[in-house]
Amino acid sequence: MKNCLFLILLLCAALVLLGCLGSPRKRIAKIELEGNPTTGYTWVYNMPREIPQEEDEAIDTFEIRGFPPEDIVRKISSDFVPHKSGGKIVGSGGKFVFTFEGITPGETELVFSYLRAWEMGIPPVETVTYRATVNEKKYLTITRKMTP
Predict the structure, then answer these.
(1) pTM for this predicted structure
(2) Domains in the chain and their CATH numbers?
């Protein structure tokens, strides 16, 4: 009886450990940005081909890695989630949620701009830059770059 219970516990522990090690969730990362779509503003992003370096030297991700930045990470989804307190109130704000997946090992930038897409020639109200890094196991890490 004790041996059977021990084997069941050992099997459960092994399954939990394997589930943690092989979790695909680490290959996915989310970026949440505050906003209010009823004002006409929305968050849009792009992935520039060149990543600026600290020495004012740009690296072309396509030339170095042999593939464009959009092959390093892929957007899985984007959605707007209203704030819980004001979700039923017309015109309330919330969060724009972008979900990305690591595709190919490498590094790129995601530059988000808060703007009205139809207003040409008007600079965004806000711009936020993130660095996306995908390792050899295709695990994705996204960090926000601080602006001076």
Answers:
(1) 0.69
(2) 25-144 (2.60.40.2020)
